[in-house]
Model the fold of this input.
Amino acid sequence: MISYYYLGSIALIVIGIYVVISKKNLIKIIIGLDIMDTGVNLLLISVGYVRNATAPIENVPGPYVDPIPQALVLTAIVIGVSVMALALSIAIGIYRKTGTLEIDELLEVKE
Amino acid sequence: MKRVLAAIIAILIFIVFAMAFAKVPFGDVNLEDYHYYNPITNETTQDSVPNHYLVEGKNDTGSTNIVTAVVVDYRGFDTLGEVTVLFLASTGVGALMYVEEKKKRKVKRANAVVETGAKLLFGFIILFGAYIFVHGHLTPGGGFPGGAVIASSFLLLYLAYPKFHAEHKKLNISESLAGLTFVIIGLLGLLIAGYFLYNFLPFGLPTYLFSAGVIPIIYTAIGIKVGSELTGIVDAMMGVRE
Done:
């Protein structure tokens, strides 16, 4: 049986894909990308989970969870933040030039 | 119509993902039961990559926190690339948000509670960020969360005082010095032992602050670098205010 953690994170990814496809506002598309990012991070973390295990810090005894997905997600979060900042500033630049964020109106803008 | 199509595509993707993950076991992975087949020596051992990190990580790196050992020591070169990506994003935001005419935005003064609270909390938040990245090899956290905490203290100042402005030159100097420290430590490892980012300092006793060789130094450099870069991003996005 599939785990609820997997179902939840896949649902987040799919909600992000739906938002990116169907919405027409640039800010909403960027929010959809962020939701997708969160889903992928959650999926990676839950793949590395081991039942009844603790965080891989060796002060305490006992089985530890897999440290590799955590390290990869640490990288992915930072990259996600930089992508989000760059995308938002590109959106702000577009708004300054054209005065709109809707894709339908942006297609008609000619310079 | 378009929304219905998007919903159908999303549901299809959901079904495919769910079918793919239905066979992945959740939680009951026993790290000691792996059978790793080595194609070169043609033999099966019980070693696996996470198992190796968990068993040998303390001896290899001296770090108590295994995630830090993976991020800074085993995959240190990857982290150097990650810091470079963050630097490029910060530069890109600065270049995109630059306006020539310097149009000043009118901003209302914050109320007295916010101003006094910002004055009181600013130093403590920076201290907390520094604590997080100095103890990166002992406790959860590290350079990236610590840098984000430091940038949040500057964000508090921006929200409380409309005329506040971080000086770009000082931010640039601290960021460049931190990046230079990271690269110089890597090159020193190359000189001493022949590997880039080799852990050449003595490891010391585990669970003590002065342990794990170069890992605390590198994480401090990363913390300062991330803090100044995120502050630069916040500064660029706030614009020129009055």
About this structure: Chain A touches chain B through 49 residues (CB under 8 Å). The first helix of chain A runs from residue 4 to 22. The two ends of chain A are 56 Å apart (CA to CA). The CA atoms of residues 30 and 63 of chain A lie 39 Å apart.
